[in-house]
Amino acid sequence: MKRVLCFGLAMLASALAGAAPASAQSYPAREVRIVVPYPPGGGADYLARAIGDALAKRIGQPVIVDNRGGGNTLIGTEHVVRSPADGYTLLLGSSALAISPSIYRKMPYDALKDLAPIGRIGAVPLLLVANPASGIGSMNDLIAKAQAQPGKVSFASYGSGSAAHLAAELFQFETKVKLLHVPYKGSAPALTDLLAGRVDVMFSTIGPAQPHVEAGALRALGVTSSQPVETLPGVPPIAQAGVPGYEAAGWNALLAPAGTPKAIVERINRELLAILAEPEIREGLVKRGYIVEGSSPAELSALIASDTAKWKKVVQESGAKLD
Questions:
Q1: Interatomic CA distance for residues 317 and 322, integer angstroms
Q2: Which residues pair with residue 204 across a beta bridge?
Q3: d(CA 56, CA 286)
Q4: DSSP, residue by residue, 238-255
Q5: pTM greater than the 0.90 cutoff
Q6: What is the CATH number of the domain that holds 88?
Q7: CA nearest 85: which of 53, 42, 122, 115?
Q8: pLDDT tens-digit profile of 19-61?
Q9: Closest alpha carbon to 188 in 33, 36, 44
């Protein structure tokens, strides 16, 4: 009886050992979902759909974009963390993964432990824009008005702890001014209220804001990168427009639930790097202000770790409050 039991257990162990490679070899056998932890209509939504459409063509299966906004990406990200680690649920992650641990006292997940990095997509400089009705037409105007009216000049962000929020916190720390934070559930509703004049300024992703700048509905004050952005001629880096040394750019990346088979992670990484090399994809992203920059899973893991340390220091030094 013992011999039969041992033989059965050995066969089961052998079967389980071979299951992961077989599953990876047959991947993908059905549709893949990319969860976007923001509402539809923002820059992340465009990015997921562009990458998703290209990925679908390469893997021969549909790729569905699933918008799950709210909680400054916590809701959508937690959904992915708790999804099966089989490669069929992916996350369009952002630098919020590195920022949120410094903003929230309790996190429903640990990005470094509960997610499997796949690859970076690129850097996302932000554009500081103002509603003309605010009377703010330049960086000096913003600083002067904020100094004269502490806590009165309002800035929108796409969530507490988002890259936009921390970019503004760093701005306040560097300029010694106090602004009023108005958080939203995504960039689209934040931009809508900025255009309506309900808030004064916003650190926005470039793509959604640029058409409104070109139409005169918004004024561009500066970009958060250390160098000018190719698609925004005449718009200086904030560091060159009155705040020396200022730099705060976010990023986007693909991730999966922790435990996703290494072969599947590597497969998606190869496809992602090939997609980012496609001229049409690169051109579309550059036009929207992205700096296209792929990476390996290991490089993305290192980026998340280093940015987590960086933003922790920013939060501590700026005195940003937990929401």
A1: 14
A2: 127
A3: 22
A4: GGGTT-TT----EEEEEE
A5: no
A6: 3.40.190.150
A7: 115
A8: 444 467 799 999 999 999 998 988 899 999 999 999 999 999 9
A9: 44
Q: How confident is the model at residue 126 (pLDDT cuts 50, 70, 90)?
A: very high
- How many structural domains are present in the chain? 2
In the chain, the amino acid numbered 75 is I
The residue from 219, 240, 261 where one domain ends is 240
47 and 194 belong to one structural domain:
no
Q: For 272-293, how does the pLDDT look when each residue is reduced to its tens digit (9 = 90+)?
A: 999 999 999 999 998 888 889 9
The per-residue pLDDT for range 133-146, each reduced to its tens digit, is 999 999 999 999 99
Which of 233, 249, 230 has its CA nearest to residue 288? 230
Looking up residue 163, the CATH number of its domain turns out to be: 3.40.190.10
Output DSSP code: residue 134.
G
- Determine the Cα–Cα distance for residues 323 and 175; give it in Å rounded to an integer: 23
Q: Which of 211, 240, 269 is the last residue of a domain?
A: 240
Q: Find where tokens 């991947």 sit.
A: 27
Q: Which amino acid is at 54?
A: A
Strands (E), the chain: 32-36, 63-67, 89-94, 115-124, 126-130, 154-157, 180-183, 201-205, 219-223, 250-257, 291-292
Q: 66 - beta bridge partners?
A: 35
The answer to whether 143 and 213 are in contact (CB under 8 A) is no
Angle separating helix axes 2-26 and 262-276, nearest 10 degrees? 0
CB burial string 40-58: b at 16+ within 10 A, e below:
ebbbbbbbbbbbbebbbee
Q: What is the rounded CA–CA span in Å between residue 86 and residue 258? A: 10
Give the DSSP letter of residue 132.
Answer: G
What's the domain range around 90? 30-123+250-318
Same domain, 235 and 134: yes
Arithmetic mean of pLDDT, 79-89: 98
Beta bridge partners of 32: 63
